[in-house]
Amino acid sequence: MRIVISHPKAANRELWCAEMTTLLPGATVFAWQPGDPPGQADYAIGWHPGAALFTAVSGIKAFFSSGAGVDHVLGEPGYPADLPLIRLEDAGMARQMAEYCIYEVIRIYHQRERYEQQQRQHVWRELEPPPRTGFGVGVMGLGVLGAAVAGALSGLGYPVRGYSRSPREIAGIACFSGDAELPRFLAGCRVLILMLPLTAATTALVGRDFLAQLPAGAHLVNVARGALIIEDDLLAALDSGRLAGATLDVFGQEPLPGGHRFWDHPRVRITPHVAAITLVAESARQVAAKISKLELGEPVSGLVDRSRGY
Predict the structure, then answer these.
(1) Which residues are known to be catalytic?
(2) pLDDT tens for residues 160-185?
(3) What is the DSSP string of the chain?
(4) Torsion over CA of 53, 57, 58 and 59, rounded to 10 degrees?
(5) Which domains does the chain have, with CATH numbers?
(6) What's the confidence (pLDDT) of residue 75?
């Protein structure tokens, strides 16, 4: 069995090669990048592989995304239409994502930013927290990671509501689905956490009309994909005070350009796409287990429905 690793970062290619060689000692694992000679492989693992991989390396039976999300592959016109695409499921990312979102929700609920302002002004004043029962936290996207985040926040006593394309039932979470229930979902979100996959249906979803359905003074947290948001509309909502703040971990262009207004906006908090970093060792174990199942002719989870984009 031959496994090819394609990743834009050399360090990641080396890590994946080392892990997969250890986990599947009978396999030949090799790295490939544009410009390398043609070859053959049974399985491919990578990130932003580019059309050249599928032209140069023949025999690939399935492609495994080496990070969260598969839009980097679905947006590649050279990706073979009949090649199975398999996504990572958690692989150590759910805990990181939950911690990131919990931190932001706690900061917002307990008004930490206002206390920091008061410190700079030498003001000693206790602030009354809002009633927790009315402090709705919405998680938009209830896949493996979204469901984990919703459950973690619910466990801390926040009233959590979740939204998904298809109906879901999750204990302790008020679940909404479909276009008809979206307005009611948004209306109850004092904090809205975006965890949607990037698809044709979700690209530029979060614009002026969408944001206007959130309660006045709501906060937005985006840990999914930057292209979900129309940036000018978000800035307008922040400038007007319609939104109280936004925490952004992902952007339409990364790294974020130095002159972008997000950098210095007083109502924006920025992190450099670190809400859930791919843990190669855990991810490789998951991929290796799935390859072993495929070799035995057994079904695997995480197979992407390309018509839906996830």
Answers:
(1) 225, 273
(2) 999 999 999 999 999 999 999 999 99
(3) -EEEEE-SSHHHHHHHHHHHHHH-TTSEEEE--TTSPPEE-SEEEESS--HHHHHHEE---EEEESSS-SHHHHT-TTS-TTS-EE----TTHHHHHHHHHHHHHHHHHTTHHHHHHHHHTT-----PPPPGGG--EEEE--SHHHHHHHHHHHHTT--EEEEESS----TT-EEEEHHHHHHHHHHT-SEEEE-----TTTTT-BSHHHHTTSPTTEEEEE-S-GGGB-HHHHHHHHHHTSEEEEEES--SSSSPPTT-GGGG-TTEEE--S-SS---HHHHHHHHHHHHHHHHTT---S-B--TTTT-
(4) -90
(5) 2-91+278-295 (3.40.50.720), 93-270 (3.40.50.720)
(6) 83
Please check whether residue 68 is in contact with residue 282, taking contact to mean a CB–CB distance below 8 angstroms: no
Mean pLDDT of the chain: 96
